[in-house]
């Protein structure tokens, strides 16, 4: 299937994910492109679904930038793929607002003071805002964390309007909370893809839904909603799952050296050579499940505004099954679902 190429900087998916554009790239542009007419301190709140480690890396970019001035304009900012190796650059090097046509003269560096940008870690948890029957607004939670001095720069009225909640005074807690929340929601949807698709190929999908209706109706309802809403967003969830994996590994301690063979007391039940990520890469494998949906099924072509396929649970698993068959025929790696699942637990 043709891989979807569009990427946006923000989105309104059902769990508030905004991992669609590299956060480091956005941060680099922000630290080098600000309005030269502004004299106020700026606050950059990264609301992308990223790991605490990634958030700390981005924060260090702002720290380096705020402490350095008068860097020659001939130097371009480093590539966003390697923010930790970036050389300091000046916030005095700013462009005019988008409505200005004239180019900023280089001599402006000597007349404009640098702008201090404070960084806050953040995340969006919950569905997009919606109006309740009583005319009140249901709002997602905007969680933020970071130095108290930076928190105080956030306008109190704006914080109340956006339902901002402070969850820590360092960089990382907000991203950790977002990752842990999304792991349960989007992780469960990924398990539903695996479970219902396998039941379909084994001819027991009706029996599975019947048993869930009897013994766990809440799970069936969640799976139906999650699976049918997932197709247009699958491509955006791939990197988010990898960030969740990094969160669990780095922050939670669930690294490969802990969850590998030694963690099982030497009792390794998989075939040697199976999988590529080891036991510590569960959500890396889940990322591959969403990548399969996005790249190798017709579901990857779905758009939220114009849905055609995957509007029922049964059609979702039919599309995924067809995608697996096509990929196997093209010489795929024995099916992405099977490889992803075995690779995560071998």
UniProtKB/TrEMBL annotation:
<feature type="region of interest" description="Disordered">
    <location>
        <begin position="1"/>
        <end position="39"/>
    </location>
</feature>
<feature type="region of interest" description="Disordered">
    <location>
        <begin position="259"/>
        <end position="278"/>
    </location>
</feature>
<feature type="region of interest" description="Disordered">
    <location>
        <begin position="63"/>
        <end position="110"/>
    </location>
</feature>
<feature type="compositionally biased region" description="Low complexity">
    <location>
        <begin position="14"/>
        <end position="39"/>
    </location>
</feature>
<feature type="compositionally biased region" description="Low complexity">
    <location>
        <begin position="63"/>
        <end position="74"/>
    </location>
</feature>
<dbReference type="Pfam" id="PF09130">
    <property type="entry name" value="DUF1932"/>
</dbReference>
<dbReference type="InterPro" id="IPR013328">
    <property type="entry name" value="6PGD_dom2"/>
</dbReference>
<feature type="compositionally biased region" description="Low complexity">
    <location>
        <begin position="83"/>
        <end position="95"/>
    </location>
</feature>
<feature type="compositionally biased region" description="Basic and acidic residues">
    <location>
        <begin position="1"/>
        <end position="10"/>
    </location>
</feature>
<dbReference type="InterPro" id="IPR008927">
    <property type="entry name" value="6-PGluconate_DH-like_C_sf"/>
</dbReference>
<feature type="domain" description="Phosphogluconate dehydrogenase NAD-binding putative C-terminal">
    <location>
        <begin position="199"/>
        <end position="292"/>
    </location>
</feature>
<protein>
    <recommendedName>
        <fullName>Phosphogluconate dehydrogenase NAD-binding putative C-terminal domain-containing protein</fullName>
    </recommendedName>
</protein>
<dbReference type="InterPro" id="IPR015814">
    <property type="entry name" value="Pgluconate_DH_NAD-bd_C"/>
</dbReference>
